[in-house]
Amino acid sequence: MNLKDQLLERITARTACVCVIGLGYVGLRLALLFEESGFPVLGFDIDPKKPEALHRGESYIKHIGPQRVADAFARGLRPGQLVVDTRNMLPKRGDRPTLVGA
User: Fold this and answer.
1) N or C: less crowded end of the chain, CB within 10 Å?
2) Distances (CA, A) of 47 to 23, 84, 87
3) Which domains are seen in the chain, by residue range?
4) pLDDT tens, position by position, for the chain (102 residues)?
5) What is the DSSP secondary-structure string of 49-102?
6) What's the longest Cα–Cα distance across the chain?
7) Residue 62: other Cβ atoms inside 10 A
């Protein structure tokens, strides 16, 4: 199976890891949309306050309510489903992430 077919299979199965770099207005929305669609998501931001707020279930974006963030992290209790961080911008997983620039 070639790389294209492998990627399409992972997307169809919702096992392709989505990496969102930058969790601002666009990036946070993308991360939440992919997570709500069942994809594992890795979100990164250089501002440590953003991941800290998200881990507390808080939203720093006016149009994204805190309940939506809290719900995503509640579902994120499944291993690797939703991870946000400021360190190690390259994931150390066996999976090659599908990158979405924000």
Assistant:
1) N
2) 9, 11, 10
3) 3-88 (3.40.50.720)
4) 888 899 899 999 998 988 888 889 999 999 999 989 989 888 888 888 888 888 888 899 999 999 998 888 887 645 455 666 666 555 555 545 444 444
5) HHHHHHHTT---STTS-HHHHHHHHHHTTSTTSEEEESS-SS--SSSPPEEEE-
6) 44
7) 7
